[in-house]
Amino acid sequence: MKNALAYSLDSEKYDGDPLVVRRLEGDSKTKFGELQREREKFVRLALPSKWVQLLIACSLLAGVLLVLVGVEFLTGETVTPQTNTAAIVLFCVGGPFAVIGAAGIIWISFRARKIFGSSDYRFFEEREEKVLSQFRGELGVPDTAAAADAFAYCYRVKNGKIRYQSPASKNCCLNESVRLYADADALFVATEQSVLRIPFASSFRIERIEKRKAFYGWNKQEKPNKGAYKQYKIRSNDSGAFTVKPYFALKFYADGEDYELLFPPYEYDTLSRLTGRTA
Question: What pTM value is reported for the model?
Fold first, then answer.
């Protein structure tokens, strides 16, 4: 099943491209590409490479496991001088690994918060919103369209395998801001550069997924642990990602393909109101 909002950097198209009814062209498309590259610079500044993140995670995991084995040696049924010595060795090796891993996670979190909380990034977001508002006018998105979050990712295909663009991964999406509106026959999903039309007659349904979903990015003015969003118990981890459970999948069949769109739980009421469907 394809995520209709997954974006291929190879073809520069959404996986749901057959559903697109309007898209940016010419100078607007060029300007959008410039915005994307500028945003990617902030992401690269905020987050280390996936290899660095992997090394930090492995260091923490190895350290914790070694310390736990050392504890098991000291608390086992048979404690001998040899097990005591082995435990000390495990503590001496595992302890530093655990400390390095924990320090690395704290460093990643501090680095991400510093960049995304900077005045330069806030200025970029303000300028970006003005340009995107202009694009929505070009795409014919009505002013009454509901602002909503949807889970997506960018990727390339290398040697037949999907390579996710950082910071997204197989288990962590990007939180994309979209506009939703509907007529009698279809739901329209407006992204930053195109409008997708999803007919209600296309085996259209909403499913509740009882799993925790990780995602990068927060698009609402209220903080995730405040006001209307507090009830959803949105957590954050030390890598700068948020997690939430459950989430919702809008699934449908069109043009010979099974598609889905993924939404956080706080968008369910909007989705249900516009589509007339419930999970």
Answer: 0.71
